[in-house]
Design a protein that fits this description.
The chain has one domain: Flavin prenyltransferase-like (Rossmann fold, 3-Layer(aba) Sandwich). The two termini are 28 Å apart. A six-stranded parallel sheet has the order 3-2-1-4-5-6, sandwiched between helices. By secondary structure, it is α/β, with parallel strands linked by helices. The protein contains seven helices and six strands. Helix 1 links the parallel strand 1 and strand 2.
Length: 200
């Protein structure tokens, strides 16, 4: 069973993170969820899912929300004893979705002030997949330089930019396109969007 860490930060677009977690659990991946303080606030505002800061209660809330049992973990951002904090127990992949420009900047600077930043650093140093899903517009020069620096260091940059060739009918179709592209990069099979040149 693949171990995937999904981080949700304070950028708009927390629905992408929730939908990704849902699909990963459906694919029977072991998913660890990490939330920044701003990520928790934006998640509540955008989706109505208000998660407590208390780790055990938050894990229970997420378990109930996703209908998960054993395959979902949650750790507080100050818990550096969490398994994915160490290079001796890294996840196969780390996805930060959505990824704020503040988080991008701190990871690009090599900072590890919280568990999410540490897990991202571990992914790069252990040559594991680090996938960042920025949801910001427009980008300024500092944003672009930080994203380029991370790309050069081996991170995959996958902006939340849905395609329209699939002729989406709903917002859910747009969300599914982006989440499907993330799953493609993780090597996880899905049926979230119509592929170019196919009937379905």
């Amino acid at each position: 069973m693949k171990k995937i860490v999904v981080g949700i930060t304070g950028a708009s677009g927390s629905i992408y993170g929730l939908r990704l977690i849902e699909e990963l659990l459906h694919a029977e991946m072991q998913v660890t969820v990490l939330l920044t303080a701003a990520g928790r606030q934006v998640l509540g505002f955008e989706t109505g899912l208000n998660l407590t800061e208390e780790p055990q209660e938050c894990r229970q809330q997420l378990t109930e929300y996703f209908g998960a049992s054993e395959n979902l973990d949650y750790y507080a951002l100050n818990d550096f004893f969490a398994p994915p904090a160490s290079g001796s127990n890294p996840a196969e992949a780390v996805v930060i979705c959505p990824c704020s420009m503040g988080t991008v900047g701190r990871i690009a600077a090599g900072l590890s002030d919280n568990l999410l930043e540490r897990v991202a650093d571990v992914a790069m140093k252990e040559n594991r997949k680090l996938l960042l899903v920025p949801r910001e517009t427009p980008f300024n020069q500092i944003h672009l330089e930080n994203l380029l620096r991370l790309s050069k260091a081996g991170a995959q940059i996958l902006p939340a930019m849905p395609g329209f060739y699939q002729q989406p009918d709903t917002v859910a179709d747009l969300v599914n396109f982006v989440v499907g592209k993330i799953l493609d990069n993780l090597g996880v099979e899905h049926q979230l969007f119509k592929r170019w040149g196919t009937e379905k």
